[in-house]
Amino acid sequence: MRATCCSTSMCGEGARRMRTLSYAQAIREAHAQLLAADPRVFLIGQGVWNPWYAGTSLQDLDKEFGKDRVIDSPVSENATTGAAIGAAITGMRPIVFHPRMDFMLLAVDPIMNQAANWSYLFAGQVSVPVVIRAVINRGGEQGAQHSQALQALFAHVPGLKVVMPATPYDAKGLLVAAVRDGNPVLYIDDRWLYDLQGDVPEGLYEVPIGSAALRRTGRDVTLVATSYMAAEAVKAAATLAQRGIDVELIDLRSIKPWDRNLVYSSVGKTGRLVIADAAWLSGGIAAEIAASVAGEMFHALKAPISRVCLPDVPAPTSAVLEQAYYVGAEDVVSAVEKVLVSSTRS
Fold this sequence. Notes:
Elements: E1 9-10, E2 18-22, H1 23-37, E3 41-45, H2 51-54, H3 61-65, E4 70-72, H4 77-89, E5 93-98, H5 108-115, H6 118-121, E6 131-136, H7 151-155, E7 161-163, H8 168-181, E8 185-190, E9 197-201, E10 205-206, E11 213-216, E12 221-225, H9 227-242, E13 247-251, E14 254-256, H10 260-270, E15 273-280, H11 285-297, E16 306-310, H12 319-325, H13 329-341
Parallel strand pairs: 3-4, 3-5, 5-6, 6-8, 7-8, 12-13, 12-15, 15-16
Antiparallel strand pairs: 1-10, 2-9, 7-14, 11-13
Helix pairs in contact: 1-8, 4-5, 9-13, 10-11
């Protein structure tokens, strides 16, 4: 996918020279350039020296910047995250790495009780400029404890920002924006996207947090997608176009805050909405968007809102069952066609 123009903040001529990188390479380049540009930036987490944990997304950063700035921590998510939050409060710009989002639950107390609330407790006099990077490792028969997409849990908490890039361009630009934001930001990436190729500028640039990307314009149905499902939605939109169905595709990019204006504007045009999020159905991001659109744009809806999400059960371990469990482009195509059939107004 290619990102559309998004009011990107560029930093010099080099930022505009494009190359093709993978999603993982784009993340790695963002880390390297942030470490080089700002001595306050450091990286800490489990497996940051080891490709088994991070793929190529952190490859050889320890050799380039030293092991005192690229710190492979002991197996203690709570202590590692708490130390990073403490460093952020004293003026550093740490990036905490959690190679599996599931085990970040062991660090919920410093994230939700401390980082999210700190600035509010002190009337904005103290900020917590920490980035907490969490990787979703679904599939591959990893089972229920290694496969969870928990973005809704953290988006629920006031004081936290949550971003989920779906392209190499956004993977780099959103990480830069998160480190420079000045607030605690959860940066969630999906290993199923790591080999995705796309255009990425050479220099540092930011993709604004809270701004969605309009990937495709259309007149029939608004399709809002997050993270990996945004890539699947591109395939679905192409299939639907061959069947004469014109989808308007929005890649949400930021889960908290999310771009209400763009979503509402699109639904006002199409009158129909399908939301695709590779997390559980109940209480998820898709539910939040559906409720908000129903509350603000009910007059414009021509059909019930549809959600494409995981069933409300833990991920299976069997490869055969995984094929039935995970949603993809075919599920999005089916949902869009059902919404069109159920339309009550033309």
